[in-house]
Design a protein that fits this description.
about 100 residues, mainly alpha, about 0% strand
């Protein structure tokens, strides 16, 4: 069995593959709802599986730490309320072979 190193770049590429959005757009400053959703799920996976601090996630995505903290709180709300959001998270995790 081959072990894969999980990085923020790998997470972004998996999200890009699942959503069809280019990784450059996910990493960028777009405020389109579907891009923001993909980006926020990347933050959650980085927090939960790589155990990065908010400031480390922020530097990986060229964001402010407080924006990451807010987004992570928002992700939890969206996961509770939206089935499509949970499905997208599951598909990204499957792409990364985390399930």
């Amino acid at each position: 069995m081959k072990t894969k190193l999980l990085t923020t770049s790998a997470i972004i590429q998996a999200a890009a593959k699942v959503t069809g959005k280019p990784s450059k757009i996910i990493r960028g400053a777009s405020r389109v709802a579907s891009v923001v959703a993909a980006r926020n799920l990347c933050y959650k996976i980085a927090k939960d599986y790589i155990f990065l601090a908010d400031r480390d996630i922020a530097s990986s995505f060229n964001r402010d730490r407080s924006a990451i903290t807010y987004s992570l709180k928002r992700v939890e709300q969206d996961l509770d309320q939206q089935k499509n959001y949970r499905l997208m998270l599951q598909m990204i995790k499957e792409e990364l072979e985390l399930c």
